[in-house]
Design a protein that fits this description.
Blueprint: E1 3-4, H1 28-35, H2 37-40, E2 45-47, E3 53-55, E4 65-66, H3 67-76, E5 83-87, H4 88-109, E6 115-120, H5 127-137, E7 143-146, H6 149-158, E8 167-169, H7 175-186, E9 191-195, H8 198-211, E10 217-220, H9 245-257, E11 264-268, H10 278-298, E12 304-306, H11 330-348, E13 354-357, H12 360-364, E14 368-378, H13 400-411, H14 417-436, H15 442-464, H16 478-481, E15 484-488, H17 492-495, H18 497-501, E16 508-510, E17 520-525, E18 534-535, E19 538-539, E20 544-545, E21 548-550, E22 560-564, H19 570-573, E23 584-590, E24 596-602, H20 607-613, H21 618-634, H22 640-655
Parallel strand pairs: 5-23, 6-7, 6-13, 7-8, 8-9, 9-10, 10-11, 11-12, 12-13, 15-17
Antiparallel strand pairs: 1-24, 2-3, 3-4, 5-14, 14-15, 14-22, 16-22, 17-18, 17-21, 19-20, 23-24
Helix pairs in contact: 4-5, 4-11, 6-7, 7-8, 10-11, 13-14, 13-15, 14-15, 21-22
């Protein structure tokens, strides 16, 4: 991805087309309730009087960024959607939230230790994000965590001016990795390798003795406390990383035999990711604190107690124990961790440690929004039933499935909805069977579909008029069955891989037109040639629904949809399915006067770049096209001017965005 630094100029609001057909009585508060933005937004996101989503990096009303204006500002700079927008000030606010929550908990509980937040860069490894965490973390005393040799080398270079910053090294480590860590310690860095297996212990001691270093060593222990939620199997006795209690004692005895027990300074655990139940935190921290205290009493030089990650994000705003929510707040989390550690340490008679957290998701998830445009819509209810059935030719009859569907359509009533729905399904299935054996014409097959969808739409409309508790169970899914498909200019696999891979839920909603009532229910399909490239699971108040409310798609008018809270894990996990590359990225900030400006733009991948990623020689491809054009000119199948226009188009395509660039003039017209 190439990068540019635009002028730091305040962007003026873009003009908006006049809209008609506003639903009487519909307000932005209705939209806020429909999309629950004020619940999952946590003060960072809301809707302004113009009906656009705004971002409030400091949770201050008035000090806000109009998301629709940002997208328009990107277009004025020649950058089309999809675009990933980072809000630097929001990231800083989240880091301060974490620090302040623990400071308050420490003061209220009389805790005598310290706190250090550590950012695991695997959560979002993009240079700008890590640099901002590093910069904002200096006054907060925050450190960084790495899980691989490349991450270590990147962080070492980025923190050369702040050797006191805590660096925790997790993940499997080979000889070279540990050598780098030991050399860093010799430089005076505050760096702690965390032992994941006993082989690493021997390597650490060997390099420390060779280089004359007194290392700081950490150990990760597998807790017996069971995990919870989607990642419940990532912790416990069968976890991928960490040592059993027996192995932890082996580490201590190995170091003690060499007079190095004081080097064992950090105890680490992994309780899970996106922990949604505070009881899980309480149990895990209690067990970890017990192990810590016992190691201190045995003579280990313990200073740090690292409770790992797991601090959740309330993706649906319900603040419940639903797996994509959390039934606790950040202050409650901090208070629970501090109080439980203090209680155990006091009971065991050991000094209070420095508490370390690795809450990467909670640090960066909220500061990113992905915005993309809708390209078109497919609506099952776009067809209507005819006023009358067609008159068959003399001596012929209409196929029975059609006449039965027609009668069902006319008779739809609330009293017999389930029966009539079954009748429609049976008639449709019978008609399909007849068509498959050649007993139904193509015209009649099309009529069958038309009547079926018209009947389903009529049943759906009756269901909408009923109280929710009165809807028959067999018709619960009819909204999903009748939902539209909005085709969208993005790749799920590149920009939102967790939606495909682990069925992650993110808040999804339009970023404008929110002073209008959304009248359509839709699923979203991306532009990849893959049937899994879709979004058909959406947040619904500690539950999942199969559609999202959208406005009627209007040809020729922009319609932008945002995916929120997607700043954790998505960017580096994305792949090149169908060779759709990285999107444009904009880093947006507020100045002291409340005006927003684009601090940095990172251009998305060009076609040329993604082809090179998969080992195509783009120069060879261009040369082949030029030869083919010359042959076409020689054979008088194409004029010289046409061949040059085609070559220009091909070259422009190689330099263009991998996503659809609607509204562009064809190169042949230039």
């Amino acid at each position: 991805m190439t990068q540019i630094q635009p002028d730091h100029a305040s962007t003026q609001p873009a003009s908006r087309p006049a809209r008609t057909g506003l639903a009487p009585g519909w307000t932005i508060d209705d939209s806020a309730d429909a999309y629950q933005i004020r619940l999952w937004g946590k003060g960072f996101f809301d809707i302004n009087p113009s009906g656009n989503v705004v971002v409030r990096p400091g949770r201050t009303p008035g000090a806000e960024i109009d998301l629709f204006e940002v997208v328009q500002g990107m277009r004025e700079r020649g950058l089309k959607t999809p675009v990933l927008i980072h809000f630097s000030d929001l990231l800083e606010r989240r880091l301060r939230d974490l620090r302040e929550a623990f400071d308050v908990a420490i003061a209220e509980n009389g805790f005598k230790g310290n706190y250090c937040g550590v950012y695991p860069i695997k959560v979002n490894q993009q240079r700008r994000i890590v640099e901002e965490v590093r910069k904002y973390g200096v006054p907060l005393g925050f450190g960084l965590e790495v899980g691989s040799k490349p991450e270590l080398l990147a962080v070492m270079g980025m923190t050369a001016d702040s050797p006191e910053r805590l660096i925790i090294c997790n993940g499997f480590k080979e000889d070279r990795y540990i050598e780098f860590v030991t050399l860093a310690a010799k430089l005076g860095r505050n760096i702690i390798p965390v032992i994941e297996n006993l082989t690493e212990l021997h390597l650490i001691v060997s390099h420390a003795q060779r280089l004359g270093v007194r290392p700081q060593i950490g150990v990760r222990v597998n807790l017996s406390t069971p995990g919870a939620g989607r990642w419940r199997h990532s912790s416990g006795a069968k976890a991928k990383f960490g040592l059993s209690l027996t192995e932890v004692l082996e580490v201590f005895e190995f170091l003690k035999a060499r007079g190095m027990q004081d080097c064992l300074q950090l105890l680490h655990c992994h309780m899970g990711s996106q922990i949604h139940d505070i009881r899980q935190v309480t149990s895990g921290v209690n067990e970890l604190a017990r192990i810590y205290s016992q190691l201190v009493r045995m003579g280990a030089g313990m200073k740090y107690l690292d409770v790992g990650g797991g601090l959740g994000i309330d993706y649906d705003g319900s603040q419940t124990s639903f797996e994509f929510s959390m039934n606790y707040t950040l202050p409650e989390y901090a208070s629970t961790v501090v109080y439980k550690i203090m209680s155990v340490c006091d009971e065991e008679g050991v000094p209070h440690p420095t508490i370390v957290t690795e809450s990467g998701r909670a640090m960066v998830a909220q500061q990113s929004v992905l915005v993309f445009d809708a390209l078109g819509a497919n609506r099952p209810d776009r067809v209507t039933a005819p006023a009358t059935l067609p008159v068959p030719a003399e001596g012929e009859e209409l196929p029975r499935p059609i006449t039965e569907l027609w009668e069902t359509y006319k008779a739809v009533s609330e009293r017999r909805l389930v029966e009539q729905y079954h009748d429609a399904l049976e008639a449709r299935d019978e008609g399909v069977r007849l068509f498959s054996v050649g007993h139904l014409s193509l015209e009649h097959r099309a009529m069958l579909d038309r009547l079926f969808w018209a009947t389903c739409a009529k049943i759906r409309d009756r269901v909408r008029e009923m109280d929710t508790d009165d809807v028959p169970e067999e018709l619960d899914d009819i909204e999903g069955d009748m939902s539209d498909i909005y085709f969208c200019n993005l790749s799920i696999f590149q920009s939102l891989p967790d939606i495909w891979a682990i069925k992650q839920l993110f808040p999804i909603m339009p970023i404008h037109r929110l002073n209008e009532k959304p009248t359509r229910k839709a699923t979203l399909a991306d532009i990849t040639c893959d049937s899994d490239g879709k979004i058909d699971r959406f947040c619904d108040d500690h539950d999942v629904k199969k559609w999202v409310e959208l406005h009627d798609f209007q040809e020729g008018q922009d319609y932008f949809i945002g995916v929120f809270l997607c700043g954790a894990y998505q960017e580096t996990l994305g792949d090149l399915h169908n060779l759709f590359g990285d999107t444009h990225v904009a880093h947006v900030r507020l100045d002291d006067d409340g005006d927003w400006w684009i601090d940095e733009v990172v251009h998305g991948d060009t076609v040329r770049e993604v082809l090179s990623y998969v080992q195509y020689d783009v120069n060879d491809l261009s040369a082949a096209i030029r030869r083919e054009c010359e042959i076409a000119v020689r054979d008088k199948r194409m004029s010289a001017a046409e061949s040059q226009a085609y070559i220009r188009a091909y070259e422009a395509g190689l330099s263009g965005y991998t996503y659809l660039e609607t509204g562009e003039n064809p190169v042949f017209n230039h």
